[in-house]
Every structure is written in C-alpha cells, then in structure tokens.
Amino acid sequence: MKIHTVLPALALLAALPAQAQDIKVGAxxxxxxxxxxxxxxxxxxxxxxxxxxxxxxxxRALKIIRADTExxxxxxxxxxxxxxxxxNVDFLVGPVASSEAMAIRDFVHQSxxxxxxxxxxxxVLTGEKCSPYIVRVGFSNDQFVRPTGKWLFDKxxxxxxxxxxxxxxxxxxxxxxxxxFTAAGGKIVGEEYSPFGQTSDFGPYLAKVKDAKPDxxxxxxxxxxxxxxxKQAADFxxxxxxxxxxxxxxxxxxxxxxxxxxxxxFLGSLxxxxxxDNPANKAFQAKYxxxxxxxxxxxxxxxxxxxxxxxxxxxxxxxxxxxxxxxxEAMHKVEMNGPxxxxxxxxxxNNVIQNIYMVExxxxxxxxxxxxxxxxxxxxxxxxxxxxxxx
Length: 391
Ligand code: PHB
What we know:
Number of strands: 15
Largest sheet: 9 strands, mixed
Strand content: 15-25%
Structural class: alpha/beta
Bound molecules: P-hydroxybenzoic acid
Shape: globular
C-alpha cells in the first residue's frame, strides 16, 4: 500500500471512538458431548436476537465467539478463562450443564464479566453462591420442579420412582420434586442415578422402575440421553404399568423428532412450549423455522431471550460495557414479554421470574407428537435461599 493511502486509514482508525469497538459475547456452550444440540440451538436463537437489533448497539457491533465446553466442567473452566483473558469478551453466555456452571462460578465472580445463563440450573448460583455478575435467564432446578410435586399428587400420583443422571442437575431436580411431592403426601418408592454422559443402555433402570410398581416414574434426561431413554422406555412398554412424568426437557421439541411416538403420554413441567399463543412467540417461531427448518424448543427461547436481555441492557447503557455494575443494573430494569411470556430478573437473586407450564406430549394427526399446555403456574419466583449480593 502506498504511503498516502495508509495515512488516511490510520487517521481514520485513531479518530474512531473507543466505543466503536466490537461488543464480544463469549458463547460458552457445549457444541460436542451429550448436550451438543442444546448448545447449537441456544447459539442460533441468540444470534437471531442480535440480528433483530441490526447486530449492533450504538454503533458497536455485536460479535459471538463460540467456545466448546464439550459438556465437561474442566473444559468449561479452561474455555471461560480463555474467553475472558485472551478474547477479552464483554459478556459470557452459557453453559448448559449445572456442573459446568459450578466449575466457572468463582472465575466469573472474580473477573466481573457478566455471565448470562440460558440453561444451567444449579440452585446455589442464585442462592448461597449467587453473584451480581451471574444473571439467570433459564431457570433454577428447584424452580422448575417445585410446582410439580403437589400438582401430580393432586392428579392421583401417590407414589413415585425417581430417575436422573448422576450429577448436580439430576440430584437437584429429583430433590426438589421429592420435597414438594412428599410434603403433599406422596411416597418415594425408589431412586436411581445413572452415570452422566456414559449411559446409553437404560434397560437395568427401566427394570428397577417396573419392579418397584410406582404410580409414576419422575425422570429427568436431556440431549442424547433423553432420546435414548424415551425410545427404550417405549420398547420396554413401561407406560403400560407406570405413568412417565418428570422435567419435560426429557421430551423437548428439540428431541421429539428423534423420539417420535415413543414420547406420547409424557407429563411434566417446562418453561416454554412452541404452541404458546402470544405475538412474540409467533414471530420467534416463524423466523426460527424459516431459518433452521425446524421448531424452536425452550432452549431456543432461552437463547433468544438471553440475547434480547443483553441488547435491551446495552440500549440502556448506550452501548457502554466498561461499568459492569451499570450493565447488570440495566438488566434488572428489563421486563421482557418474549416467546415464554412475561419474564424478568429478580434483583435479589438474579434469578428469572417466569411461568412454569405443566405439559403433556400428545399424538396428533399423522402421528406427530407435540407438547400441549395443561396448566400454567404463573410467575414462579425462588426464595432468596441464602443469596447475599456483594459487588
Ligand atoms: C443442567 O445441567 O442444569 C441442565 C441440563 C440440561 C437440561 C436442564 C438442566 O435440559
């Protein structure tokens, strides 16, 4: 390049205000391992929210940097560090597994980089180990299942067998259900925890459930484990003697196409279904389906709303990201009426306040299985649970 072309270019660079730097969002998500499909969908939907804002706020471009956690806590910890110290991200969005979130918690708190969580439900992150820099858009594990214990008991489920992967989320989801189910008068007749990410044969667990003769099995699986479990439970004809209930990610619209009719009859809780009848959801589904040729699930809704929360907060700070406290306080002011319905962040814990839907997987015309809402528990909010915010 000749000198007279270089000089004006340099002068132009120097004249650009610091504000014009990109806003970097580190997507700390599984793109491989058990929860790979979840990481992809969250990223797709977040990108859609950024696109709707023109991929920029106040002239600063929004850029997503992907980092694959492989659904492993130690990899998540290394990737979080890399995103913050090498890529200089302004935000982190992720992870999916509670165990991954626990592994990055202290680093996030110390580095003061806002972490927006679309999924990982580990209770303590908006309880005893809350942080002003950790904002939960997804759910806490307890929030998700707390309403289900009494609900199922009132519908005639008097005894239950618990089944989940053996890691933080599986234990917490079963613990939350057990507490509300037994408080309502229900009896737990057995519980099993399968090695997380290592179980593809659920046969021995299905046999144990059947032998215990409960009214229902209350189950949580996601990703490839959910697909395998539901198909094998159908082959085993478990539903002939035991009602299959649980945290309804197990039959997420993300996994339903692979599960097919095997999923029909599942009853449980979820914070979103594609059929929700509100204008924001209709627009969201139309755009997602056009782009990705399939229905968006609750993981997409949470990824989209994570992106929306970041955009709306940045609009309030005029695109400024340096003052982290100002960014988080702006997030507290955002009230979204998005695909999920009304959603806001509780400033006392940074946990989301949202509706929990009781849903049933129903076979429709042509044998296609979809989720129908059978009840809505509005504005479910967690207690403070030992959270004391310290900046
Ligand atoms: C979690 O580990 O917190 C988790 C993972 C997948 C889900 C729900 C919760 O679908």
